[in-house]
Amino acid sequence: MKFFIDTANLDEISAAAELGMLDGVTTNPSLVAKIVDDPERFGYGEFKKHIAKICEIVDGPVSAEVTTLMADEMTVQGVDLAGIHPNVVVKCPVTIEGLKAIRRLAGKGIRTNATLVFSPNQALLAAKAGASYVSPFVGRLDDISTEGMALVDQILTVFDNYRFTTEVLVASVRHPQHVVEAAMMGAHIATIPFKVIEQLVKHPLTDTGLDRFMQDASVIQ
Ligand code: E4P
Predict the structure, then answer these.
(1) Is the CB of 26 under 6 A from ligand 1?
(2) CB of 101 closer than 6 A to ligand 1?
(3) Could you read off the pLDDT of 119-142 as tens digits, one per residue?
(4) Whose CA is closest to atom 10 on ligand 1?
(5) Torsions phi, psi of 126, nearest 5?
(6) Which CATH superfamily is domain 2-220 in?
(7) 16 C-alpha to center of ligand 1: Å?
(8) pLDDT interval class at 5 (50, 70, 90)
(9) How do residues 204-213 score in pLDDT, each as one tens digit?
C-alpha cells in the first residue's frame, strides 16, 4: 500500500518524507490556499514553482489540480502542469468536461487523478477515460451520513471485475480508522493529512511502555 500526504505545506511534506513512509503528495486549490500568506503576490507562476519544490522533496507522484472548468482549458493547463516535472499528475474533476480532459491528457501520455469521486459510476467512467488514479472522498461522504469506505469497497470490486489498472487513491481521510479500512480492503493508496500521519504512530501503551523502559534504563546508564 502506498501512502501519500494530503497537503501543500512543505514542512509537513519534508517531515513525512523523513519518516520513510512517503510515496507521493496530493494537493488541491484549498490546500494551496492554506499555505499562501499573500494571495495578491501568489498567482499561477508561484503555484507552479511551489509544485516544483514539492517534486524536489518527494520522488513520487505529485497531484496538481486544474483550476478551469472546460475540457479545452483543462487540457491546456494539464499539459502545462505536467511540464513542471515528470512526477506531476494532473488532477481533474469527474465532470463531463473533466472526463474529456482526462481522455485527452491520457492520450498525450499524461497521468491524471480523477478527483471529487463520490460514486462507483464516476470512478468507472474515469477509469474508462484513462485516469491513472481515482480519488473517492471518504470523509466528505461520512460527513453526510453515508459510509465513505463502502464506496472504496465498491470501486475496488468494479476495477477488479474488469482488470482496470487505475489505482484507487482513498482521499478525504479524517482519522486512522480510514487508513486501517483502506489497507484491509486492499486500496492501492491513501492520501493522509499530516495530523493523521502523526496519529498513526501513536498508541497509549507505546507511551506508557516507553516511560517504564526509560525509568528502568537508569540501571544501564
Ligand atoms: C485529495 O486529493 C483531496 O484533495 C482531499 O483528500 C480532500 O480532503 P478534505 O475532504 O479533507 O478536504
Answers:
(1) yes
(2) no
(3) 999 999 999 999 999 999 999 999
(4) 172
(5) -65, -40
(6) Aldolase class I (3.20.20.70)
(7) 17
(8) very high
(9) 999 999 999 9
